[in-house]
Amino acid sequence: MRDPGTPTLEQLRVFVAVIDYGSFSKAARELHRTQSVISYTIANLEAQLNVALFDRSKRKPTLTEAGKALLADARTVGLKVDAMRARAKTLAQGLEAEVSIAVDVMFPNCRLVAALQAFQQRFPTVALRLRIEALGAVMHLVGQRTCQIGIAGPMLDFADTFQSQPAGSITMLPVAAPSHPLAQMEGIIPTEIARDYTQLVLTDRSELTAGQNFGVVAVRDWRLGDLGAKHMLLRNGLGWGSMPEEMIREDLDTGRLVQLKLEHLISGEYTLHMINRLDEAPGQAGRWLMQYLLDHSPQS
Hints:
Number of domains: 3
InterPro entries: LysR_HTH_N, LysR_subst-bd, WH-like_DNA-bd_sf, WH_DNA-bd_sf
Shape: elongated
Distance between the termini: 58 Å
Strand content: 15-25%
Number of helices: 10
Keywords: DNA-binding, Transcription, Transcription regulation
Helix content: 40-55%
Family: Belongs to the LysR transcriptional regulatory family.
CATH topology of the largest domain: D-Maltodextrin-Binding Protein, domain 2
CATH architecture of the largest domain: 3-Layer(aba) Sandwich
Structural class: alpha/beta
CATH class of the largest domain: Alpha Beta
Low-confidence stretches: 209-213
Mean pLDDT: 87
GO molecular function: DNA-binding transcription factor activity; transcription cis-regulatory region binding
Protein name: LysR-type regulator
Number of strands: 9
């Protein structure tokens, strides 16, 4: 048997497209090719590799065992080439005109302000667009190319189209106003008791976290899209919930909020990740901002 040949990038992209779109005909429409061209391309790829990639006995394209093994390689090659092209584009363009970033609402304000001030001093001619969002909204904005850079929270698995780097963590504390019944209880508070009181929960505007309840134990909860609103309601005794320690440190010191010792949670770590799309690498100014934020990331 002869050794496998070298497939073309076009063949690999067609192979991945057939799986991603679910059929030869749909892949043809998305790639603006005829179905016969798609079929011919796959047949040539199989001939190049000396293996059958699809089980032809079934109506829907179904991968053989060899096809399953090689699909991951095909995706990796495509992503690497896209990343190389994106990097070459930024090198050719030099300093970009604009940098856009989405930041998780939990990220400490003082660190964000310092980073933005440093960026403006370093790159006064580069426009900076900022979005502050919660949970899955950051990943959604980067995935949709609305923002080039994101500082995202811990709740999601990042697809292989993203580059992800650890960007520190934040200590989260469950708190309530001193007038709240839970704050007046001594010792460890059982979960079944905390469950009976309204919990204030941060939510987001994306579909990526739909149906997921992160740390929600209460029978009744209020869903809030704004961390400032949650902070205000907590201080006024209208529920209990977790907040970033740095944001509420003054409240704890002055007694406006009290840390709760819950059976299921006394404190927690909210991990952060720096993300960007592999096929849309940030330019010189964007890379500088990413590195600055990584170098000054919060550490619990």
